[in-house]
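Sample 1 of the test manifest.
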Amino acid sequence: MEKLLKGKKFYIGVDCEGVACVVGEPGNGLGAGEQYRFAAKQATREANAAAEALFELGAEQVVIWDNHGTGCNLDYDLLDSRVHITLGSGHRGRFPLLDQSFAGVMFIGYHARENTVNGVLAHTYSSKAYQYFKLEGRELGEMEIDAAFAALKDVPVVLCVSDYCAIEQARESFPWAETVITKKGLSWTSAVSKHPLAVCEEIKAAVGRAAERLQEMECYRLPSPLEVEIRYKRMEDASRDNLVDQNGKPFARTDAFTRKGIMDSIEDLF
Ligand SMILES: [Zn+2]
């Protein structure tokens, strides 16, 4: 029998906050200490579990995109030697070199958006800088924004792996996608987590389910043009904001903390 994913390509975005047994440091987000080191190790394991399951089902190519912070976090030696790895920072846009030849994107280690009660390490790009990102009047997070970039290349979202709150948000935005819950937040920096290795087994099973249902997977599209509203935490950041609208004019300042404007496309956000 021909394998389900024969010849197919997948791209896995990997952040670090959403993985099992990661809660960061109070007042400091994920930080750079013991929790950061564990997060990098567990993000490696979770991404690799997905990649191994994809290869077992016949996938031809799997790209793992290391995208937390500076983009250099994972333990590359421990990844399946067949994967390609996107790493580092300084490039534009999201999902570098993604194109129509890919059958799906996956999110591992992502987190709930800023302004989520009990979302573990919930934030949108920076917990120090932003109160929210509203697109077309709705607060959205990093998963939705990355999914919208994938949709520009007609690539659907097939799997999301994160904490309970982030998965609630993913199910609302991508009801077709398979999901795995890694932990349930008790506060911004505490959770009851599944065991790190048990989560990897769940990821393999979820990849199997996603493969069976690949035809049902959809793209998450944002309209173009697009209304963008960004609320900062600090007034001086709102005054420094240099986003421009579709006519090249600076975004309007709707109050001391908030900027708003119409962009041609989500691509113009980065
Ligand atoms: Zn991160």
